[in-house]
Amino acid sequence: MSVERLAELIRERAPCVVLTGAGVSTESGIPDFRSPTGIWADVDPMEYGSLRAFQADPEKIWSFYARRIEMLTGAEPNEAHYALAELERRGYVRAVVTQNIDLLHSRAGSREVVEVHGSIRTASCPACRASHPLDESLLPLPRCPDCGAVLKPDVVFFGELLPRAAIDRAYELARGTRLLIVVGSTLEVYPVADLPLETVRAGGSFAIVNRGPTALDGRAVLNVDGSAGETLHELATVLG
Ligand code: NAD
User: Fold this and answer.
1) Which of 13, 47, 111, 161 is the right S-S partner for 178, CB 3.0 to 4.6 Å?
2) pLDDT higher for 141 or 46?
3) Boundaries of CATH 3.40.50.1220 in the chain?
4) Contact criterion met (CB below 8 Å) for 104 and 126
5) If you measure from the C-alpha of residue 223 to the centroid of ligand 1, how many angstroms do you get, rounded to a whole number?
6) Would the CB of 110 count as within 6 Å of ligand 1?
7) Which CATH fold topology does 1-30+77-117+162-240 show?
């Protein structure tokens, strides 16, 4: 029933913007952050995920990140990623704004993907600032081919600002849509969690597809508590 209601909202208000979080990729075998089985259940985020920790000991952080990147590049898109790419082709989705760094939306065929927390596509040199493709052959300890310094992956660490162009584009998309759909995010990380409210401030509304509660459930026009893969696959079928 709620998938049908979501389809109705999309028919009335398309093209919509979709905001995804780690929950859209768990069905690809990638753990999310905050579930009991999530990444930070065994690893202290400040020890491995902060800019300060990277600057203090980049080799230690790479010993964790190299394994993480291998896991992410080995994963395949799931039904949720494919359904969103299909809905974009059919004109129901204008763009996907994602907090994920795993590249799975692009690999599933989504064309406009705004990566607000960066991605594992590239790494930059803290010394000479050059950006390089984060090729797996550089692992386990990627060094700048120009100056030899240890590269930093172009993902947003705790304590770092979000890439300006991406967050500006995300706000512009949030303001410009009449319906934003959140998929697989607790909506606890700012400023991304403010994007659904930006849609509301501009006169639109937002729906949430998530397993379990989020910080903004009470503000949503519709809450679908269920699997991202199953829900979005069914949604694409209902929309025909
Ligand atoms: P989060 O871990 O805070 O929340 C994920 C939410 O998705 C939870 O509420 C969880 O119950 C729900 N969920 C899990 N599996 C689901 C499924 N199959 N269907 C529907 N819902 C499901 O993640 P977040 O809000 O994205 O927060 C934060 C950070 O996590 C972001 O900064 C992101 O960069 C990072 N992250 C990215 C990846 C990735 O690239 N795949 C993986 C882990 C974390």
Assistant:
1) 13
2) 141
3) 1-30+77-117+162-240
4) no
5) 17
6) no
7) Rossmann fold (3.40.50)
Per the CB < 8 A criterion, the answer to whether 140 and 63 are in contact is yes
How many residues are present in the chain? 240
Q: Assess whether the C-beta atom of 228 lies below 6 angstroms from ligand 1.
A: yes
With a 6 A CB cut-off, is 33 part of the ligand 1 pocket? yes
User: Cα(216) to centroid of ligand 1, in Å?
Assistant: 15
Please write the tens of the pLDDT for every residue from 157-198: 999 999 999 999 999 999 999 999 999 999 998 999 999 999
Q: Tell me if the domain spanning 32-74+120-155 has CATH number 2.60.40.3140.
A: no
Q: In the prediction, which pLDDT does 38 show?
A: 63
Helix, strand, coil: what percent of the chain each, to 5? 45, 20, 40
The tokens describing 193, both together, are 């969690």
Mutation to probe ligand 1, out of 20, 27, 32 (largest number of atoms < 8 A from CB): 32
- In the chain, list all ranges with CATH 3.30.1600.10: 32-74+120-155
Q: How many of the other CB atoms lie within 10 Å of CB of 194? A: 15
Q: Identify whether 233 is a catalytic site residue.
A: no
β-pairing verdict for 131-133 and 118-124: antiparallel
- Among protein residues, the one whose CA lies closest to atom 23 of ligand 1: 22
Residue 191 has what DSSP assignment?
Answer: T
The predicted pLDDT at position 49 comes to 87
Q: Is the CB of 106 under 6 A from ligand 1?
A: no
pLDDT at 1 over 70: no
